[in-house]
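Severity: low
Component: inverse-folding endpoint
Summary: output formatting inconsistent between runs
Steps to reproduce: submit the following structure tokens with default settings.
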């Protein structure tokens, strides 16, 4: 009798284990953890839409940007002009589409300039001698305190009003923030035990930076660059509004707002549409940055 109970007990336990299915809650949590954050999905959708419109504008627009004989001046939206026309009779939708491409070009190029300059300065400040760190951080703090618009005016005075001048002004101004973030993260990573062990094993300075510093810093930098991209779109619109952006016939959302300012009561769509376009682009890039931060930061990535 005792032998029968002894032999049947493992069988009963083996049968009960799959019936209880203890792994199901864990599987649900695993699936929830892999679920993309809503901010990442919405931000990617908005940025993707603006990028698609800008890409299409490179090959096709309803009308030419300088075509003033397309219809009535200051006309509202119609079948012929979905966005209406401006005070010169130009099609607003064509200018909005071209402005989308220019805004994303400025955002992407400014992120590239800020990333290259900021990462280089931040790595040098965080991984070199004390006097180099202090000197570089003093210049970074000075640049952070320097207004972007004032820097743009100085660059425009030297190079002239153009899209590239706006890119350099926004990129150089944003590089200070990237340098600050990079320096803090580099200093933190270099204090870790595995970095000390890498040095003890004979790994050189560049090897340490490429193998240990960059992989641990890039998620934070990517978030900051996305936020910088949103600020770049807004800064480019501000510069164009003040006449410091790309000159005509290049279309810009900021210049569309400036031109529609005097006719807003007659044709409000001339101010509403570029304003909405700026909000969509900036909101999309900011949400994309928040989504990347939530996806890559283990402290914010909770199990659902």
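Observed output (run 2 of 3):
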């Amino acid at each position: 009798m005792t032998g029968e109970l002894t032999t049947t007990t493992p069988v009963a336990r083996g049968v009960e284990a799959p019936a209880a299915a203890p792994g199901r809650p864990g599987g649900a949590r695993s699936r929830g953890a892999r679920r993309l954050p809503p901010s990442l999905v919405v931000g990617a959708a908005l940025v993707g839409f603006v990028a698609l419109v800008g890409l299409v504008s490179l090959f096709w627009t309803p009308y030419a940007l300088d075509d003033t004989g397309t219809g009535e001046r200051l006309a509202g939206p119609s079948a012929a002009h979905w966005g209406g026309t401006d005070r010169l009779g130009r099609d607003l939708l064509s200018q909005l589409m071209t402005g989308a491409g220019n805004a994303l070009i400025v955002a992407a190029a400014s992120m590239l300039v800020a990333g290259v300059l900021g990462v280089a300065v931040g790595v040098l400040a965080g991984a070199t001698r004390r006097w180099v760190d202090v000197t570089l951080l003093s210049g970074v703090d000075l640049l952070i305190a320097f207004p972007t618009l004032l820097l743009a005016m100085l660059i425009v005075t030297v190079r002239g009003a153009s899209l590239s001048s706006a890119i350099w002004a926004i990129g150089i101004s944003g590089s200070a923030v990237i340098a600050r973030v990079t320096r803090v993260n580099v200093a933190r990573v270099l204090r870790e035990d595995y970095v000390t062990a890498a040095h003890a094993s004979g790994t050189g300075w560049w090897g340490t930076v490429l193998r240990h510093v960059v992989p641990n810093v890039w998620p934070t930098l990517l978030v900051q660059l996305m936020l910088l991209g949103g600020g770049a779109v807004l800064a480019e619109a501000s510069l164009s509004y003040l006449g410091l952006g790309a000159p005509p016939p290049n279309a810009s959302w900021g210049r569309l707002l400036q031109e529609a300012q005097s006719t807003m009561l007659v044709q409000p769509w001339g101010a509403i549409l570029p304003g909405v376009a700026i909000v969509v682009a900036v909101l999309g890039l900011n949400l994309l940055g928040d989504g990347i931060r939530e996806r890559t930061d283990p402290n914010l990535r909770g199990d659902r």
